[in-house]
Design brief:
Layout (H helix, E strand, L loop, with lengths): L3 H8 L3 H33 L5 E6 L10 H7 L4 E9 L12 E5 L1 H4 L6 E2 L2 H8 L4 E5 H7 L6 E6 L4 E13 L8 E5 H7 L8 E6 L5 H11 L7 E5 H10 L4 H30 L1 H9 L4 H31 L3 H6 L7 H28 L2 H8 L1
Parallel strand pairs: 3-8, 5-7
Antiparallel strand pairs: 1-9, 1-10, 2-3, 2-9, 4-7, 5-8, 6-7
Helix pairs in contact: 1-12, 2-9, 2-10, 2-12, 2-14, 10-12, 10-14, 11-15, 12-14
Length: 379
């Protein structure tokens, strides 16, 4: 602490330069935290799902529906406890920017498969008893200020027209990665409004024995192998992970961007410290003359560099955590999106590494500086 005032005076010698360096580090670490949080959210989403639930979709692609008759044949297989199905709706609420997932589901079989989704029993009962009812995630309710009993109108895109729904229930997931911004309504309502021209988008089935998931998946696909609508069946976790891979190799992209940003900011910080060291050459010579040791002088330079990068890192990382933690658009696209504490810790480690790397050369120069040569330059 006895040298704190000296370090502070050195930092404030060129306030503008110090401020710009701090802000450069802050912006870099903000971007790092934002991008890495996408990776962690995608990884968490890929882990959502149960090994005891299988998802069977069209082997051609997720956008191709399947015959409803498939459900009866799947349900008849030994080892299948229950079968349900769902469809993607793709409606718009007020304007296209208000994106959230909407699913038409078979209420009496779908929700019992998901005990991790908490719905008050009386609300679930009200939902099941009304054809135009909907169950909505708590996050979506808060996002739009909806209330139970309110009528919401969605504009159909895949299924044209105005669709009126009455909110009868609110669900809360046990795992944030499951997402609390989805909209569920009755498949029967969709079926009737489309003049019975819709069929299931995918089937969900629960197994008696989760250890038979691989064998059951192969067995189901074999049943429909030569039909007009072949299937691809996998565990729910693998199905969710498949959606994650549609984003591409995001991890590689983040690492590449992060590496480029690291070296760019390293050069900025190193240049700042080199300029500061050159400006204080005569001061370092005088300090050596009055008894300051090489280790002490190099340590002071290193501390100065680390303080700059750590301050910038703190601003950037906690700024990202505050600004992005409750972002509605990000949370609707990536359920569970947040700047996790592991990202915060890694960000501070990067800031520390930046400080040590940028201060290394100036510290070494300060330590090996010859008093006579430095005073001769000043003279």
């Amino acid at each position: 602490m006895r040298y704190a005032r000296l370090i502070w005076a050195n930092l404030m010698r060129r306030k503008g330069r110090t401020l710009l360096t701090v802000l450069s580090v802050a912006v870099a670490l903000f971007l790092f935290a934002a991008l890495r949080s996408v990776v962690t959210a995608l990884a968490a989403a890929g882990e959502v799902g149960s090994e005891s639930r299988l998802v069977s979709r069209s082997a051609i692609g997720i956008t191709f529906p399947l015959p409803e008759a498939h459900a009866r044949r799947i349900d008849a297989l030994d080892g299948v406890a229950s079968v349900s199905w769902a469809n993607w709706f793709g409606g718009v609420y007020v304007n296209p920017q208000n994106f959230f997932a909407q699913f038409a589901v078979v209420a009496d079989t779908y929700f019992p498969m998901y005990p991790e989704v908490q719905i008050p029993p009386e609300q679930l009962e009200a939902f099941e008893g009304e054809r135009t009812a909907a169950i909505v995630g708590q996050g979506l309710m808060e996002r739009f200020g909806w209330r139970v009993g309110q009528t919401v109108t969605l504009q159909g895109t895949i299924f044209p027209g105005d669709w009126d729904f009455t909110i009868r229930g609110v669900y809360v997931p046990e795992d944030p990665s499951f997402g609390d911004e989805a909209f569920y309504f009755h498949y029967e309502y969709l079926y009737e409004r489309t003049n019975r021209n819709v069929t299931p988008g995918w089937f969900i089935l629960r197994l008696d024995n989760p250890s038979e998931a691989a064998a059951m998946s192969a067995r189901i696909d074999q049943v429909f192998e030569n039909s007009s609508a072949p299937t691809k069946t996998e565990t729910e976790k693998a199905f969710n992970a498949g959606f994650v891979t549609m984003w591409g190799n995001v991890g590689f992209l983040v690492r590449a961007i992060g590496t480029a940003v690291f070296f760019a900011i390293l050069l900025v910080a190193a240049n700042t410290m080199m300029m500061a060291a050159r400006e204080r050459t005569h001061e370092v010579a005088v300090m050596k003359t009055i008894g300051f040791g090489d280790r002490l002088l190099s340590g002071l330079v290193m501390i100065e560099a680390v303080l700059i990068t750590m301050l910038g890192g703190a601003i950037g990382i906690f700024g990202a955590r505050a600004a992005l933690g409750g972002n509605e658009m990000l949370s609707s696209l990536l359920p569970g999106y947040a700047v996790e504490w592991s990202t915060v810790a890694l960000g501070f480690a990067i800031a520390l590494a930046l400080g040590l790397a940028s201060g290394l050369v100036p510290a070494w120069q300060a330590a090996r500086l010859s008093v006579v040569d430095a005073l001769r330059k000043v003279a």
